[in-house]
Structures are given as structure tokens and as C-alpha cells.
Amino acid sequence: MAFNVRTVDLAKLNSLTKYPSILTYHTLDPKNGGLMEEVTAFTGTVIGTEKVDGTNSRVICLPGGCYLLGSREELLYCKGDLIGNPSLGIVDALKETADQLCDGERAEITVYYFEVFGGKVTANSKHYTGAQRVSVRLFDVVALREFDALLTQPAAQIAQWRDDGGQSFADEATLERIAAQHGLTLTPRLFAINGAELPRGIHDTLAFLQTRLPESQCRLDDAAGGKPEGIVLRSPDRSTIAKARFEDYERTLKRKRTKM
What is the DSSP string of 85-146? Predict the structure, then answer.
């Protein structure tokens, strides 16, 4: 398929390449946003990576050498444009990386997902930098080989395909190879344990987070506060993935103490 980014339906392409929502390790209570006792089931090896509090960003490499940059929700820049959307500094942070990642011919659409953090990206940027430095960490890659057929589908069907896990994400070994090949930094790898070793109780999980990630490994300077956001748990093939945030556990336990 000859790919022309100037004629493709950008709304569909945006939906096709969005990063899907990640469930919490303990199920969220839809009534109050607290955590319930049910946990995500992991079998075999579980890899823990630091969850960085930044902005979810995309480098979308297209057949023909063109690329797009986007936030989680919208497209911000196309290769060769004179003006890009300055939202959250994503374009400035990723444009040079995109030039390097997307400089070769490819038959598929490849999407590299980064966390852009530091600067003034979020209210918690102070935990990563005291000098408003900005950095990026790669956390996932997806290859879309049947994009031509997918882009002919109605927008609602594309969104449903994505939400049902249709995207083919790279496994851990491939992620490591891609990062090494292109000189990219992955989100910090904290541990690899058996799923049976994961805590199941809410209190025990908070203690687990505190032990495994006492401070952020993504501090960009000595003036950074260093308070971490949480841990992402994932199987090596990424078939199972969940997030565990300090804030969710602290808030849930505070509510329980208040009720008692």
C-alpha cells in the first residue's frame, strides 16, 4: 500500500496508534475510585518497571520514511512541518529521536511509546528535576503490519480492536534490543520475579512498592525530590500488564482507617 500521510484519515490513524488503557493491579472500585481486593493474575515471570509520572507520547514511523509525533490523545506534528503543537514539550523532546528512528524504509507502521517527563510536564515533575530538565524513557513498541486493512474499517471498530488488545506489542527481549540498537533508555527495570511472589493484599502491596522502589530511578539532577509514582508489572511477552501506583494504595488505606 502506497502510504500518503497527507491523504490518510488522520482520525483513524490516531485511534489506530493510541496507547491502550492499562488496568490497575488491584481492581478500581467504580463507585469511589478506591482499590478492591481482586488482583490481576500473573503466572510465570513478572517484570517490574518504574512507572514514570510524565506524559504518554508517541513516535509513529510510517512507510516511506515519514513520521508523526503525538500525545496519548492527539497528533501534534508531522515530519517536515514548519510549526508543531507545543503541547507539553513533546515535539521538542522527541523530534530528534524521531528523525533517527524513522530514517529507513519499512513495510509496517511502527509506534514507539515514550514517557516525556521533567520540565513542567506534570505537577510532580519536581520529583525528577529541580532544574526543569526534560528527558524521555521508552516503555513500549508496537508494529502494525495490517494497517491498510484496519484503516478501511469504521472508526468505532478500530477503537474496539485497540481496546480488545489488537495491537501487537514487542516482548521484553525485543524492547531491550530496540533500545540498544537506537541508543534509547528504557523505563528502569526493577526486578524479575515469579508471579506467585507478588503480594495480594492492599497493605502488603503498598509495602512491596515501598521496598522495591523507595525512590525514583529517573532523577535528572541532585535537586530532584525523588518520590516515585509506582510500578508497572508485565509478563515478558506483555500478554499481561498492570500498574500499581503509590497514591492509589495510600488513598485506599487512608479511607479504611477513617472508616474504622
Answer: --GGGHHHHHHHHHHHHT-S--SSEEEEEEEEEETTSSTTGGGT-SS--EEEEEEEEEEETT
Nearest to 107 by CA among 153, 79, 141, 148: 148
The pTM of the full predicted model, rounded to 2 decimals, is 0.95
Contact 28, 88 (CB under 8 A): no
Q: Return d(Cα 51, Cα 127) in angstroms, integer.
A: 13
C-alpha cell at 214: 523507595
Which DSSP letter does residue 197 get? G
Is residue 200 within 8 A of residue 55, CB to CB? The reply is: no
Q: Which three cell numbers stand for residue 102?
A: 524513522
The pLDDT of 59-82, averaged and rounded, is 95
Residue 212 or 258, more confident: 212
Give the C-alpha separation, 131 to 125, whole Å: 10
List the grid coordinates of 174.
Answer: 525485543
**C-alpha cell belonging to residue 86:** 507545543
Q: Which cell goes with 257?
A: 482507617
Can you say how many angstroms the Cα of residue 125 is from the centroid of all Cα atoms in its chain? 17
Nearest partner of 150 among 59, 14, 34, 6, judged by Cα: 14
Q: For the residues 113-141, what does the mean pLDDT come to?
A: 97
> Rounded to whole angstroms, how far apart are CA atoms 35 and 252?
6
Q: 67: helix, coil or strand?
A: strand
Grid cell 512498592 — which residue?
209
Cβ proximity of 216 and 128 under 8 Å: yes
Q: Is 198 exposed, middle or buried (0-12, 13-18, 19+ CB in 10 A)?
A: buried
Contact status, residue 25 vs residue 249, Cβ threshold 8 Å: no
Q: Count the Cβ atoms, other than its own, within 10 Å of residue 156.
A: 9
